[in-house]
Amino acid sequence: MGECSHDCSSCGEKCEKRDFKVNLHKDSSVKKVIGIISGKGGVGKSLVTSLLASKVCKDGYKTAVLDADITGPSIPESFGVGDVRATAIEGQDALNPVVTDSGIQLMSMNFLLQNETDPVIWRGPVIAGAVKQFWTDVVWKDVDFMFVDMPPGTGDVPLTVFQSLPVDGIIIVSSPQQLVRVIVEKAVNMANMMNIPILGLVENMSYVKCPDCGKEITVFGKSNIDGIAKDFNLPVLARIPMEESTSRAVDEGDIESIDCPYLKDAVEKVEALLK
User: Fold this and answer.
1) Could you please report the per-residue DSSP string of the chain?
2) pLDDT in tens, 107-128
3) pTM (2 decimals)?
């Protein structure tokens, strides 16, 4: 018998269906887990994660971000805590999350490195193991919503998150380019195969608004998001434009200061999970 791929739907073995869920640390509490995914890199998945976490926190919910992009983390810099390191809990084999100015709890690989520019040169199974440890060995304190910022693609980490964490729903991030359609469909199909609820789609870099006349300029051409949403019967939760103020806030580690009105429907969809 070969190594188990954990894809029971294509398996010929008559074994018991396994539960790969892992338990939180005994002192942790997380009510809802939302995965933020994309089929490819560079579409703004970490930006959407940061903006959602910030807005939900402003609405009065206790919020956390688990940065599952182990080899390319950007969450710490967005929140202005790139030079902070996670601390161990005395007498326990566990860590405290890093907490932002507004109270958002964060855990990222960069909090564990001696230098934030040190590369993480690990193979997939080790990376997947680190993601699970962020769930099991970090003491998450009374979290209402945890956002999991995943690396691009449909490989080890998304599979680990879907199988190991109690994911209540995912948001798929895309951009307007035609080539992204196939990539988004891969992410949708993976979620459906894993029986993970899809809350909806968010399109980033949808347009640029002319500062003089206010006209919306579609830099990447006509959007495909409505067609994808219709094909899979999913809602489009947001179309986020490219804005200099947002880019500046991210570069300055001040993502929490942004009031992003474009994410109103996405925030309502997430917060409805607790109502």
Assistant:
1) -----S-GGG-----PPP----PPPTT--EEEEEEEE-SSSSS-HHHHHHHHHHHHHHTT--EEEEE--SSS--HHHHTT-TT---EEPTTSS-EEPEE-TT--EEE-GGGGSSSTT------HHHHHHHHHHHHHSB---SEEEEEEEPPSSSSHHHHHHHHHS---EEEEEE-S-TTHHHHHHHHHHHHHHTTPPEEEEEEES--EE-TTT--EE-TT-S--HHHHHHHHT--EEEEEPP-HHHHHHHHTT-GGG---GGGHHHHHHHHGGG-
2) 999 999 988 888 888 898 899 9
3) 0.90
